Each structure stands twice: as structure tokens, then as C-alpha cells.
Amino acid sequence: MGDEARREVLRPVLEVAIAVARRAATDPSSAPPPAALRPYMQFSRIPQAALTAALRALDDVVFRRVVAEACAKDDELTDGQRAWLSREDRWEEILDDEAGQFAQLSAAQGQLAEDRSLARRLEISERQVVEQLVQLAESGRAIDGLTRRLEAADAALVGAEARAESAENDAQLRSSERQRAVRELKAIEAREAGRIREHRAVSEELDRVRRESARAEPVAAASQSAVDAAAIEAAGAHLAAMLRRIDDLQEVAIQLADHVGAAADLLDPTREQPRSQGPTPPPLPPSRRSPRRRPHRLTRGMVDGSVEAARELFGLPAAVALVDGWNVAMTGWPALNGSLQRQRLIDLLTDLGNRHGTEIHVIFDGVDDGSSPRATGSARVRVQFTPAGVEADDRILEMIAAIPAMTPVVVASNDRRIRDGARDQGANTVSSDVIVRMS
Hints:
By secondary structure, this protein is mainly α.
């Protein structure tokens, strides 16, 4: 059997031996302690090395006998311990048996301790597993909730995409309808401008005939009176027919403008409702509009609606001209796109402002799209774009009312509502085609 097992079996005897040696070291009448134990006399706790030294010291017969006497009354000594002290027959066999039993017991205790440690670790692991299972279950429930939310979001996205596609199709259809209405309106305005030009030409021809008739000799006048009267009567009838045709075309243009406004409302639901195309409201009583603006009276012999009359109006001191941008631009350059139409009009108005010294405001429907022109060479021309839902017609009429009554105002447009409203406020009017011909 190993020395370690023997030492553990003999530990009670070895501790007694160390105690005997300590007493001998303090008692002068006793024999001195063995030299192997002297280094350990002052230790409060017995180290393992002291037990080994005591085991060697007990090989001394005298010291072993003293220790045996000290242990004689100890009833707890085992047979092996007593046999080792007395060194009786078979003491080694008896000691080894006890050492073997001690080794087995120690191994069993060690295994038990290890089992208990493993049991505690297993219990802790089981608790951790249970906690993880609970957390896993909670995570599973959270994942289920997120999955349901994701499915609902996917369904909502599919519905939104379907609605967006339907709205896009509707918008494309309405945009096509609006473009068609605008094209028809432009065509009618172009035809109307042609009719107006024909009317102006007839008026100028009629004026020429009248002037020639006034200069003719009295005798020649008598002989030619019947012929001139017939010509004048025919020209007057033609002029009346032209004016009726112009009125009809303007009514059609107003109806198409209504269709364009309705199409714009369909494309932009947030747009304010357009003005109704009903009759122009009656003017305010004179008592509420005093002082009242008076239109400029043209020089005697000047034909109203002619280029010369327009130049006289633009040359008035401190005159302000308000131009219906889109109306004039589409009349003058119907084949160009919107950006080029605007630029051509701005260039023309810049030239007119520089030549006549007139302050000119040109007003376009709609918000600036980023490609708006800029007047160059003159600060007299000012470009405005109306906000969304506000038409150039309304803006021009508001500007007329805001200009002092003593300031001459000239309004350029073919729009019947603008022209009637401008005349009601004492402004002079010029047609869009005359503006174009002033270049």
C-alpha cells in the first residue's frame, strides 16, 4: 500500500507525536524532541511536511515508546495504528489492510463528491435549458406576430400597387383628354385669329374707301355715289357676318376652356374649382368706384383695333400694358412648343417696351415649370406665373383694379371675358394678333 494512504491512516498518531515533541521542547525535564520535528514546533497548523517528518521521527524506538504511552488511553485508535506503534507481529499487514480500506473509502467519498458536483451542474443546466425553452417559446410567438404583420403589410402593398396602377391609368387617360382638348382649343383660337385678321383687313379697306370718298370731287361723288354706296353696303354686311362668326368662335373657345379646366381638375383633385363661365357680373355703382378710370380716346381718324391705334396706346405717358401670355403666344406662334412660344412673346414685348417706354406685365397661367423665359435688354417687361388654381384672367382683372385710376391701362388678349372686364374698368383693349403684328 502507498505511503500516502499509510500517512492518512496514521494521521491521529502523527499529530500526537508532534504534540509530544512540542511539550518536550518547552519542558526542560523531558528529553529533547527529535531533530526532524524541530523546524515545525512554532506552526499553529500542522503542514503536510510535518506529518512526513513525524512519520520518520517515529522510527526512533525511544520516541515511538513515548508516543505510544501518550496514546495508550485513546480508545479511538485503530488496530493498525496500535500495531504500528507496538510493531507487533503482522503490524504491516494490519496497517496495510486499514490503509486499503481508507483508500477505498476516500475513493468512494471522492466519487460521491464528484457525483454531487455533477448533479448540481446537471440541475443548473436543466434550469438553463428550461429558461432557454421559455425564451424560445416567447421568440416563436414574437416571430409568429411579425410574420402576421409582414403578411398584412404584403397584402396592403399589393393593394396599394393595384390602386397606384389604376390611378396611373386614369391619369394617363385624363392627360390624353386634356391634351386633345388643348389641341382643339389652339386650333379654334388659330382659326379665330385668322378671322379677326380678316375682319381687320376689311375694316382697313372700308376706312380706305371712306377716305377716298371724302376726297373725291362733288361732281364725281354724285356720279359715283351709287357704286360706292353698294360697295360700302356689301363691305358692311361682310363685316357684320365676320363679327357674328367671331362671337360664335369665342363661345366655342370658352366651352373648350371649360373642358380643359375640368380635365385639369381630374388630374389634380387638390386644385381649386375654376371660375364659372357665366355672364360677367355687372359693374359696381359709380358711387363705389369713384374716381373711375376713363379709356383713352384715339386720335381722330385712327381706326380702333388697328396696329397704329395699338402703337398710340402703348406710347401713352406712364401707360401700363397687361398681356394675356398664353392667349397672345398661341395666337402668334401656334406651331411652336410652349417654351418657345413664351420666349418669342417675351422678346417681342421687350422690343415694344424699349421702343414705346411702356411698363409691360405678361401673365401666364400655371406655376413656373423651370423653363420660363427671362426678359433681356429691358427692365420694363415683367413676367408672372399664376399660382395653382388661379387663372391669368382673374389675375389681370385684379391688377387693373389695383392700378391708380389716372394711369392709362392697355390689356392685350382675345379672351372675351378679359376684354369685357377690362372695358368695364376703363382700360383700353388690344387684340392678340395686333400685338403680334406690332413687331
